[in-house]
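Allow me, if you will, to draw on your knowledge of protein folds for a short while. The matter concerns a single protein, recorded as an amino acid sequence and a row of backbone structure tokens. Kindly check, if you would, that the fold set down in the tokens agrees with what the sequence suggests. You will find the record immediately after this paragraph.
***
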Amino acid sequence: MQFNLQQAIYIIHLYNTTNNNILQLAQRTLKKYEQRECQVEIIACGKVGINYFTYRGYKPVIAFRDLSGDPRPEEADTIADYLVDAYLSGTIDEVYAFYNHSKNLYEQVPAMWKIMPINMNMFFEQRMAGNAQGIADQDP
């Protein structure tokens, strides 16, 4: 993980009972960035994440309180518009998503996925391999 950036954004997606593990992973990573004087913004999806970070002095730049397991297209569009505008204007350098990854039907593990900037080498490797799904559908 590189720490030479000035600002990163975290997207925290919480909607079930394994929230604590995601919050701990996000908090540990947040502290590492702050130790390197990197400003971090949070986009929180779910009441637990909003309350957790607000209590600790972080006001989410975007917050969706009442979500079920997946954001609706309107919420996803709001997040995407914000991220693309901020990235293209140079306001942010990196974006990470924190979420539950389903290993199998019964086990979920906290995961962190770097969303931006897009790793173009990985994109082209997937394209050359004939993977029509692209990198967005790949697990980190």
The chain has four helices and five strands. The longest strand covers residues 94-102. Residues 19-35 form the longest helix (17 residues).
